[in-house]
Structure formats: C-alpha cells, structure tokens
Amino acid sequence: MNPTSTAQAAAAQSAAAHAPAAGPTAAAQVLPPPPLLSARGLSRRFGPGCDLCIELTGDAGATSRCPACGTVVAVHDVSFDVGAGEVLGIVGESGSGKTTLLSLLHLDTPADAGSMVVDGYGDLLRSRTSDAELRRSAVVMVHQNSLAAGLAPRLAAESNVAERLLRTGCRSFAEARARSQDLLAELGIHPSRHTDPLETFSGGMAQRVQLARALVNPPRVLLLDEPTTGLDPSVQADLLESVQRVTDRLGSATVVVSHDLEVIRILADRVLVIHFGRVVEDGIPEQVFDDPQHPYTQLLVASRLR
Amino acid sequence: MSDAPTVASLAAEHGQSEAYAYLDERTKRNVRRALLKALAIPGWQIPFDSREMPVARGWGSGGLQVTLSLVGPTDTVKVIDQGDDSSANASSMRSLISRTSGCAETTVTEEATIIQSRHRIPEIPLRGDQVLVLQVPHPEPLRRVVTNDAVALEHHAERDYTPAWLDLYDDEARHGAPRTGADYPVLVEGTTLMSPSPIPRYDVLRLGNRPHATLLGAGRRARVAALPPFTSVEPLVFDDRPLLAESAAEPCIRCGSIDSYRVQSGGRYQLAAEAGNGPWCCSDVDACRTRRNDP
Ligand SMILES: Nc1ncnc2c1ncn2[C@@H]1O[C@H](COP(=O)(O)OP(=O)(O)O)[C@@H](O)[C@H]1O
Ligand SMILES: [Mg+2]
Ligand SMILES: [Zn+2]
C-alpha cells in the first residue's frame, strides 16, 4: 500500500464528506481540519436477522434481541466524528453494545454496515491491507483486562512498551529505551520499576504500562475499554489524570467507553449515550449529565446520584 | 553435464552397491532435494525424512545424513567436534563415513572436500570447492520466544521477528547484554532469521559472505537449512549494540595466537562457558597445529 496516496485519498474523501457546499478555495481557507476518525452508520448484529429485527428492537421493543428471530442487534446505525486530541465518551449499561462497538473500530469483528474513515488511511472497514497491520499503526486499544492485551507478564515493563517500537522497525536500543522509559515515567511508573517483570505489577500499574504501550507509537485512534473498572477509586482518579495529560499532548482521537458516568464526565469532551445498541443522546458532558433529555439517560444520571 | 559422474555411478565404478554410504539412494535423494530447496531459500528451514542413524538423535544425526547424502569415493572428509578432530564422537563419525563410502579421511582443513562440524567453523578459511556441514540441535531460532511451531512458522512467513527483537531488548534492558552466548540468531540476506547452531559468537561473525556453501542439518527436528556461497549473514543486533566475539584472557599456550578462538582447558567441554581453569589454547586444533608448524 502506498501511504502517501492513501493519505491524499482520505484527505480528499473527508474534505468532500464534510464540506459538501463549500467551493475549493473556501474549503482551503475556512474549514477546520478533518476529523481523525469519522464513523458512519456502524451496525453489527449477532444472529440470522429478519425483516423485523430493527423495528422490534431498541426503545420500541425495550430490548436488543429481536422477538421474531432471536437476533441480537448489538450496534445499530452509530455515527460520530472525533478530532485530533478530542475524547469521545460512550456511556451505557452493561449489554448496551459498547464493547461490540469498540471491537468494530478495532477491526476485531467485521461490521455489517457502515464506514470508518481514519485520516490518512481511508475507510478501514473496506481496506484490503491486513487488519493486523493497520491496527498496529493506526488504531490501538487499551483493554479492560491487561491479561487480554497481549502483554508478556514475564518481561520487563519497559520491554512491553518497547515492543511496539521494535514492531515498527526501531533498531536503536538507546532510542527504544529512552522513548519507553520517558512514557512510563510520564504515566507515573517510577524508574526503579521499569525493568521489573510486568507480573509483579498491580492492576492499576499494569493498566499504565498498557497505556504507555498503546501510546509509544502515537496512534491516530486510541480506544479505551472501561479503563478504570476494577481499580480502587484513588487509583482511578490518578490514572484518569494521566490519560488526560497524555492524550492532550499526543493529539490522537480517543474513544473511551464506560458504564461509569463519572469516568466519562472527567475524560470526555463529548458524550454519546448508547442504549440497546443505538445512540439515544449526544452532546457535551455538562449538557448530557445536567439536563438529560432521553428517559434512559435520566435514569442513568438518577441511579448514579443515588 | 551429461557425462558428469553421479554419486551412484561413481559408487558402481568402485564396486559399491545401491546402499552406498549407509543410506539407500532414495533417502539420499530426499535429503539432497531438501538441500536444494534450502539453497534456493537461504536460511529457511526445510523438512526432510530424518532416518534413524547409528548415532543418537541430537548427536549429529542430521549433519551425518547431510554428509552421507553428498559424499562420494573421491571425497576427503574431515569431522570435528568443537574444533577437535580427535574427540570420540568426531572420530567414530569420520570412520563411519569413510568406511561406508570409501572416501578418504583427513584432519587437515585444506585437504578436506567436506567438513562436518559440531559447534565450530574451521578457522583456516574454506575455499569454494569445499562444503561445510554443521550439526544443528535446534533449528528454530524463535524457539525460546515462540513455543508453538505453527505460530513460529507464521512469524517466518511474514518475516515478523518482533518476538526475537523483544527478547533481545529485554536481555539488554535487564542484563545489559544478550543472554544468548552460543547459537546467536542471525538474519540471512537481511530477511530470514536462522539458528546458526551453537557456534561461538566468534564464528557467528564469520558465517557470512564465504566462497563455500554451508549446510545445516538437524536430525532430531528433521530440518535442513543452507547458506549458498556469498550469502549475507548478520547477527540480530541493535544498531547501537554490536555483537562482540568472546575474548580470551591469554594467548594460546601452544601456538601463541592472540586472535584465534581460545578456550580454557580442564573443563568438561571445550566451550568457553563451561571451561575449566587450565591454560588457554586454540579450540581449532588443526589451525593451531598449522601455526605451530609454519610460524
Ligand atoms: N459474539 C457474540 N455473539 C452473540 N451475541 C453477542 C456477541 N457479542 C456480544 N453479544 C451481545 O451483544 C450485546 C452487546 O454486548 P456488548 O457489546 O458486550 O455490551 P457492553 O460492552 O455494553 O456490555 C449483548 O446483548 C451481548 O449478549
Ligand atoms: Mg463491555
Ligand atoms: Zn593455538
């Protein structure tokens, strides 16, 4: 694949998508930079599907499982843009489709419909390059459980971070080491622990290592799945602060999903509320959490306050 | 080419049967076919039908099958074990090869047409009309970091050696040096990762760009690999962490060499890692003797 031509194609594509009315000169002068990540109509269901699936699920049927054929409509028609340095928060209860949505964005599961344009890479859902290769360079996920993240427990923490640099061809030990150690330190891991085997780290510390590993080759898109679930509250706040500082500096487009409103309130610049696989509300956190419009969001906010 | 003698025709001339050189002609052809494939893809591991040999697997049965599939009555064979022609294992393999094939034996590097070796490369430079056969215990260079063979094969197919680089990084970060002493992994032609067999780093640095072919045989794992003449072979190292040859504390007590690969005698094996505390001497006995006779 030729990265330059793909980048140009993607730039042209997103410019066209976001400026249908503007002429070429106006576009050059007035338009904000295109979003790093632009998702449109993402859908995924599990099951055979029938003509009634969409009609009978969601708010209408108060379920994501089609009563006619049993298919689970896990994600339906989800669209959003995320810009450089922006954090999109997605909140919803367990089973609402958050993990499925992230797995579509991470190219772990094929989407039934929709597109996912990443600046410089085009529509990743239609790319012919191998998924693994794109994922490594463009879209990186921090998993809820660091055991699921492909980390090597017996290797040093810094080795787990450096792996991403080695994978992309860094052949200078000094450079790989400096970049890995700097990022670990920035994320609050004391230098005396950088060479300790990862298996000696606590959950919160391992999560920081996973984050450093995700960011050491700054990705276009960073996906965080329930980044603080299972950590104790003081560790949570600390980790969230680190996440915020580093994502600000690197300018990746970040998508964070959580069932925890507080996490989303702290991290997100914009919020989507997802319910039965559909977006039921979106806006800035203050607006969504202080003046929820959809009954489900109202319920979420009320249960949080209780 | 049509009147060029084949191993079989030469054997017939010398009154030898089909089952010449211990193996039947079919088995030898199978090994040679694997070797041709191996020469076509330098450094790549090619499976072959490894036979039971009169030496235990892991004691040179792979190297022996390679040698026997090539040797003819006009050849001269040298067998060394860690540089030494006179070890029990080397002498018995040498006599097995010469008795079953009628070839000549030698301990003099220059005289040999085929040199079978365990864990050393002769220090006297080999010529293009000589062949080096190395005995390989573990042909898979990723075995320490990728335990599943199928997964290792995928890494080779994609030329993705990140696990090996990661292992190297972890050693450097935690121990300040690679832990791998002998059997240091090498990149062949810049693309294929290969185990050079447990030769010292001194020899790893002399593997590439040679006028002769190097054939590697692993009997237990039933694989061969090959380096055709003038193949590029580089150790897997970071740009800022070059591989250094082992250093010896003293010159050879016999020939006085200061740039040969020397080991301390008195150990159980002539490996630097397991050496004793006796005097230092050349591991390559023939090279040492040559220097003494012809200073
Ligand atoms: N592989 C699958 N096969 C069948 N149903 C699935 C599969 N993965 C998820 N689902 C269903 O899709 C819905 C959304 O699940 P998920 O995305 O894990 O939600 P969340 O992460 O918000 O808890 C659930 O009803 C779940 O049972
Ligand atoms: Mg989930
Ligand atoms: Zn000597």
Short précis:
The complex is a heterodimer of chains A (306) and B (295). Chain A has 306 residues and is α/β, with parallel strands linked by helices. Chain A has helices spanning 3-18, 24-30, 53-56, 98-105, 131-137, 157-167, 173-186, 203-215, 233-250, 261-267, 285-290, 295-305, and strands spanning 37-46, 72-82, 87-91, 113-118, 122-123, 139-142, 221-225, 253-258, 270-275, 278-283.
The count of DSSP E runs of length 2 or more, i.e. the number of strands of chain A, is 10
Radius of gyration of chain B: 19 Å
Q: Please count the beta strands of chain B (DSSP E, at least 2 residues each).
A: 12
The dominant shape of chain B is globular
Identify the CATH homologous superfamily of the largest domain in chain B. Bacterial phosphonate metabolism protein PhnH
Q: What structural class should be given to the helix and strand makeup of chain B?
A: alpha/beta
> Which chains make the largest contact?
A-B, 17 and 13 residues
Mean pLDDT of chain B equals: 90
CATH architecture of the largest domain in chain B: 3-Layer(aba) Sandwich
Percent helix of chain B:
25-40%
Write down the overall geometry of chain A.
globular
- Class of the largest domain in chain B in CATH? Alpha Beta
The overall number of domains of chain B is: 2
What share of residues are in beta strands of chain B?
A: 15-25%
Round the Cα radius of gyration of chain A to an integer and report it: 20 Å
Largest sheet features of chain B: 7 strands, mixed
Give the topology, please.
The complex is a heterodimer of chains A (306) and B (295).
Chain A: H1 3-18, H2 24-30, E1 37-46, H3 53-56, E2 72-82, E3 87-91, H4 98-105, E4 113-118, E5 122-123, H5 131-137, E6 139-142, H6 157-167, H7 173-186, H8 203-215, E7 221-225, H9 233-250, E8 253-258, H10 261-267, E9 270-275, E10 278-283, H11 285-290, H12 295-305
Parallel strand pairs in A: 3-8, 3-9, 6-7, 7-8
Antiparallel strand pairs in A: 1-2, 1-4, 4-5, 9-10
Helix pairs in contact in A: 6-7, 6-8, 8-9
Chain B: H1 7-13, H2 25-40, E1 46-47, H3 61-70, E2 76-81, H4 88-101, E3 104-105, E4 114-118, E5 131-135, H5 149-157, H6 162-175, E6 186-188, E7 192-194, H7 201-204, E8 213-218, E9 223-227, E10 233-235, E11 262-264, E12 280-282, H8 285-293
Parallel strand pairs in B: 2-3, 2-4, 4-5, 5-8
Antiparallel strand pairs in B: 1-9, 6-7, 6-10, 8-9, 11-12
Helix pairs in contact in B: 2-3
Bound molecules: adenosine-5'-diphosphate, magnesium ion (MG) and zinc ion.
